[in-house]
């Protein structure tokens, strides 16, 4: 008799609740971007005047541009450190351990961040908010690894890119709703209640973690794989990192360089649009900046289906980087409406996310997928953290009461262009190496999945059987990737 876990609907039910894991945390992540004026606004506005219906002084938390960008930098740096250990622990202790721990850290971090806003004008505000972002970063980055690991297990060799695309779409739905709703909510209820509302959405992720862990556990037992995967996980060692393939490292660098141009730009996009294009209000600027996520929300599932059908992940990686170049050129040196550039960036981002991240399970064994995802996320976040610090230095450290000069924004866009050139170089090298090793990345999911199942998916069990019995106790076990 066919078990429920063997049916198509079961893995899509798992996928639905798996997608909800990061809906609230992605909403929370970019709240500072939408409310950048309030975060960097003056503590008080005693002599505020109204010019053409606009108040010339914004009351807020009094952060400088450097302090504001530090909120994003500390998130990225925390991810860079924590996700390596998190990925290894997930491989050793399992998905259920990961979803509970890291979804709880998201709730705790977002709550502490919201609490920090109550200490406006005191020395405690910045330390509390930075600590909140630190904990939030520890949870959200690591939770994404568990999410990807669950997706890869249930959809490897099937609708893998579609599943990754839907996961991204749900996450970006949180981001899109943030850009559409947060500014309105803040006007009506104030910043403090807005931040607490974001924390409440993270509780939704914790509830989803409970559901998906139950479904995952029941499903693996019905498939008879729970014990086998736990046996493989016990054999995972830190030293196995040295055996990850050159394709994996080139793929990770490609991801890092591409995302270096996405998240640091979005963090400052609302302020950039208001400074360069003077006829945009804060609400309109937030909508235009959020178009990056709007595009990815609409396109992610369709792009996933396309990539599952045609393959060509390596080719798409190169194309995404090449077609991203004009975006930052337009923003830096022309006055083309910014909506054109943000929609364009959203399209290339959708193809990049659906082609790059789903490629990782194709070049590493299932037993070490958490560790591999953790390392990839870590290196990505190191790049983003450095980029956020560089952007903060480029834009200056003074209060944002007045506009940031256009030449500073142009230098920021040139920095984004440099990262995109780096992405082109690494993605071209990735395709060359992949071609020499069989071209796995440019095959369709089912063809590459079948190829992987024979050579990589169960290397630990196979190696255990082949190992000479007399040397088994003293042998150094490794994982071929």
From TrEMBL:
Single annotated GO MF: transmembrane transporter activity
The keyword Transmembrane helix is annotated on this UniProt entry: yes
UniProt KW keywords: Membrane, Transmembrane, Transmembrane helix
Residue ranges constituting the Major facilitator superfamily (MFS) profile domain according to the UniProt record: 11-437
Major location (coarse): membrane
InterPro entries xrefs: MFS, MFS_dom, MFS_trans_sf, MFSD1
Transmembrane residue ranges: 12-29, 70-90, 97-119, 125-148, 160-181, 193-215, 246-266, 286-307, 314-336, 342-360, 372-392, 412-433
UniProt-annotated stretches for the region Disordered: 441-481
SUPFAM superfamilies according to UniProt: MFS general substrate transporter
Localisation per UniProt entry: Membrane
Membrane topology classification: Multi-pass membrane protein
Composition bias, Basic and acidic residues: 454-475
The reaction(s) this protein catalyses: L-lysyl-glycine(out) = L-lysyl-glycine(in); L-histidyl-L-alpha-amino acid(out) = L-histidyl-L-alpha-amino acid(in); L-lysyl-L-alpha-amino acid(out) = L-lysyl-L-alpha-amino acid(in); L-arginyl-L-alpha-amino acid(out) = L-arginyl-L-alpha-amino acid(in)
GO cellular component terms listed in the entry, alphabetical order: membrane
Keyword Lipid biosynthesis set for record: no
Comp. bias intervals (Polar residues): 441-453
Subunit structure, as described in the record: Homodimer. Interacts with lysosomal protein GLMP (via lumenal domain); the interaction starts while both proteins are still in the endoplasmic reticulum and is required for stabilization of MFSD1 in lysosomes but has no direct effect on its targeting to lysosomes or transporter activity.
The protein's role, per its UniProt record: Lysosomal dipeptide uniporter that selectively exports lysine, arginine or histidine-containing dipeptides with a net positive charge from the lysosome lumen into the cytosol. Could play a role in a specific type of protein O-glycosylation indirectly regulating macrophages migration and tissue invasion. Also essential for liver homeostasis.
Protein name listed in UniProt: Lysosomal dipeptide transporter MFSD1
Organism, scientific name: Nothobranchius pienaari
